Amino acid sequence: MYVIGVFTIRALGEDGSAIFKSTKTGAVAKLTTVQESQLGHWLSHQHEERPGFVESLMGHSEILVCSDSNEFEDYKNELIDTRDNRARIFSLHIEPTIQCQLECGYCFENGINRGKGMSDEVFQQSLSWIGQYFDTHKEVQVLRTIFFGGEPLLRKDIVKKAVVAYSGLAKSRNLEYMTEIITNGELLTEEVAAILSEHNWKRVQITLDGPREVHDARRNGKNNRPTFDNIWANVLMLARSNYVPGVDIRISLDQGNAGHIPRLLEFMVEAGVQEKIRLSVGFIESSFFVQIQGVKETWQARHALKVWETARDLGFSIPDEYASGPLCVAQAKHSAVLQPDGHLQKCFCTSGQNQHAFGSILDGSTGYTRDPRYENFKRLDDCISEKCPYIPICGGGCTYHAVVENGGTTESFSARHCKKDLLHDLNEGLLRLSY
To answer: For residues 93 and 368, what is the distance between their CA atoms, to the nearest angstrom?
Structure first.
């Protein structure tokens, strides 16, 4: 007997069709009203011949599943098995500095000790440490470095020599290498772009929070120094070259800029670069040191969907899914955030806070990069008890924000950061827009 899978969600298409999607497999099926009626009839009368289209809903798609399967328990076991036994990528966030030349009011790093930049001694020791790590963990096949900060390009010297050294180290171990950078974009010169591109540069993320006057009011330098024009010039440089496959533009959406984002998208279209731009929408939340007034998830979903609808109509690619997990880099087996002083953490949101370190490249540890606080998968139990279909694209939500919400105690790492209303509204809306 077959039933509709517990991880299958349904949206009503703009043309009246029914759009089914498995949040576990990503499979999507669009059924006409007649087909949906046929499906409903067959599910109740499975002794009858099944309609031809039903076959595509079974098997790997998992839109329909066997009625005797325990999907939630199977998923949890698969998640842990994938995390523990199929880990092949080492993701290393490298922070050459936590300092930044911008003064964004909502930055989650506001209030931390920005400290000093990375010394050459720490950089050299990091190469020795990662080499020993590869020698110990033969299952690793890919090294992925992500330059992060603060603003990593305040230390271009570290970025330039690190990408050369780490890619060379990977090659010496017969590992695949790729690199990424998350930057505010103001200091991203063509010289840096050319160097990164020589070492399998896969991704760059730059934040633009609106058209010029809106962005400059939110993401300005000291003494309200405007930043939009310099950043946009660098975006254009990347979009009109082949240094990197595309430019990820992140928009931090809140009540202060939601109504202005369509003008930003129209501005990008006028430059003719929308095919090279990959958009993402993020939502500003409280951190340990910055309190953000709560915004209802229904509001967030509604305004994010307005952004995506405008983007679609202007020729941008849009996603058919909004995910908040489930296995973020902080929960991955082989992952670490390398602080400028050599401390190691699992989550880049805790940068500059050494109480969140699990070790150091100076301590000679050869075990996998383990912080047990990020390995508490019992936090899924409440989600399972509620039979939530969004578990595969959420996994209990962001651990960091759960910790912030629950006072930063050790116990708070086992709490979840539930965003079910946002996931429901946004994912159903994205299905309607995409199909």
So the answer is: 16
Which DSSP letter does residue 254 get? -
- Cβ burial, residue 144 (10 Å; 0-12/13-18/19+): buried
Task: Order across the sheet with 8-12: list the strands.
Answer: 8-12, 18-22, 28-31
Where do we find the tokens 């578990």? Answer: 391
Alpha carbon distance 292, 14 (integer Å): 35
What pLDDT is attached to residue 295? Answer: 86
Q: Please report the DSSP string for 305-323 in residue order.
A: HHHHHHHHHTT----S---
Each residue's pLDDT tens digit, 367-420: 899 999 999 888 899 999 999 999 999 999 999 999 999 998 888 999 999 999
* Residue 77 DSSP SS3: helix
Q: Report yes or no: 163 and 145 within 8 Å, Cβ to Cβ.
A: yes
> Is 106 within 8 Å of 292 (Cβ atoms)?
yes
- Assess contact for 244 and 238: CB atoms under 8 A: yes
Spatial strand order of the sheet with 343-345 comes to 277-283, 247-253, 201-207, 176-182, 142-147, 89-94, 335-338, 343-345, 359-360
List Cβ neighbours of 364 (8 Å cut-off, separation of 6 or more). Answer: none
Non-local (6+) Cβ contacts of 358 within 8 A are: 344, 345, 346, 369, 370, 371
pLDDT in tens, 235-254: 999 999 999 999 999 999 99
**What is the pLDDT confidence band of residue 294, given thresholds at 50, 70 and 90?**
confident
CA 97, 99, 101 angle in degrees (round to 5)? Answer: 130
Predicted pLDDT at 345: 97
